[in-house]
Design goal:
It contains nine helices and no strands. The termini are far apart. The mean pLDDT is about 80.
């Protein structure tokens, strides 16, 4: 009888080892699943960089035509890259007034902009300004009236995961910038 108890004791010990083993396996699988879920929830997005030659062109143009100082011009170009990054990743929204000036400058050099668009987006990124007859375009009206359009592009880029966005460039009104320039030229 003593051997039977011992045998049962050993068998019970083996059963305990199996259950501990299975708990260990479930624990490892659980940790692995958590890692997979967390890593998939980490935002991965395609970053858009404007080529150096185009940055130089935009830098010069923003200073000469839009009267931006060197720092404002550089910050605006960086935020234009962030805007393009948002577009590349499917975001819909408007650029700020300062970023719009950089976008206009980019568009004005049509060969450069066309090439940039084809390489970056695979299509020509149109700029549709606000105008009174825009209501006739159903697609434009659908986009503008969507709830997604009313969330600022700045907030969408933050939600996408872009770090170190320059909030000043996204919220600063160029009217103030232009008034500052007029005051300086009047002196």
């Amino acid at each position: 009888m003593h051997q039977k108890k011992s045998f049962i004791g050993i068998k019970t010990m083996i059963d305990v080892d199996k259950s501990v083993y299975f708990l260990y396996i479930f624990f490892i699988i659980g940790i692995w699943l958590i890692i997979v879920v967390l890593s998939s929830s980490i935002t991965c997005f395609k970053i858009v960089l404007i080529p150096d030659k185009e940055v130089q062109y935009l830098y010069e143009r923003l200073q000469t035509e839009d009267h931006m100082n060197e720092i404002d011009a550089l910050n605006t170009i960086i935020e234009l890259e962030n805007y393009y990054t948002g577009v590349k990743n499917g975001l819909i929204g408007e650029p700020s007034e300062m970023i719009d000036k950089a976008w206009h400058a980019h568009i004005l050099n049509t060969p450069m902009y066309f090439s940039f668009c084809n390489l970056t987006f695979g299509y020509y990124l149109h700029h549709i300004p606000n105008w009174t007859r825009a209501d006739e375009d159903g697609e434009t009206q659908r986009i503008v009236s969507s709830l997604d359009f009313h969330v600022s592009m700045f907030k969408k880029l933050q939600n996408l995961g872009l770090q170190s966005l320059n909030e000043t460039v996204w919220t600063y009104k160029t009217i103030t910038l232009n008034n500052d320039v007029q005051i300086k030229t009047e002196l």
